[in-house]
Specification:
Elements (H helix, E strand, L loop, with lengths): L1 H26 L9 E8 L1 E3 L3 E5 L5 E6 L4 E6 L11 E4 L6 E3 L3 E6 L5 E15 L6
């Protein structure tokens, strides 16, 4: 009987977890796209570190990655990196190869103390295209 009660509690817990996960997806608004850009629909799993010019933490949930050839990508990040958008932090990462890839763990560091204040995994790199400038 105790086993049945434990299994029932576990099933209820899993159902509640699934409901919470699906709720978070439903409440998410349109994905962040930096001003002046639109998504192309193309994605990449990795970007060459030598070609990355800058990574700007312009939003709590997404970062703008600009390449040396002016190509641009947006990557979604987990909630552990929300403080990366603050002015007193910077991001730090160490990768085993010459590419920054989806799933890599990025640390958010406090500039004053050089301590970790958060960390998260980065998502796929979604290609951006600049919007044409308004001729008016």
């Amino acid at each position: 009987m105790k086993l049945f009660a434990a299994l029932t509690a576990l099933s209820a817990s899993l159902v509640m977890t699934g409901a919470a996960l699906s709720q978070s997806d439903d409440t998410d608004e349109a994905p962040f796209v930096p001003e002046g850009y639109e998504l192309t629909g193309e994605t990449r799993s990795c970007l060459s570190l030598r070609r990355i010019d800058s990574i700007d933490t312009v939003d709590e949930n997404a970062w703008l990655v600009t390449m040396r050839n002016r190509d641009a990508y947006v990557t979604r990040v987990g909630s552990g990196c929300r403080s990366a958008a603050r002015s007193f932090t910077y991001i730090s990462y160490s990768v085993p190869g010459s590419q920054l890839c989806r799933g890599e763990i990025v640390r958010v560091m406090d500039q004053g103390t050089n301590t970790v204040v958060g960390s998260c995994g980065i998502g796929e790199f979604e290609e951006l295209s600049p919007l044409p400038e308004d001729a008016s």
